[in-house]
Ubiquitin-related modifier 1
Amino acid sequence: MVNVKVEFLGGLDAIFEKQRVHKVPVDKEDPVTVGDLIGHIVSTMIKNPNDVSVFIEGDSIRPGIITLINDTDWELEGEEGYILEDGDIVSFTSTLHGG
């Protein structure tokens, strides 16, 4: 099990019960990856199934959502393959705003 802090910013908190910061335990055998975390978020944290498409497109994070792992762009860290450690901070920030 790995315990991480997950932040939903830029309006994404609306699909997570308006809570921006979550302490998330991912109960899986090591290693636990960001891909595992994303699966956990989709299966246990998004209450309305219609909101899944706001967060996920295909099998990855929707374009327009900046994903950071410990304040570093996840593309530099290996995206879904990054192995999480206790205390990591994963932030999802939507750049898409209504007008």
Notes: The chain is about 20% helix and 30% strand. The chain has a mean pLDDT of 93.
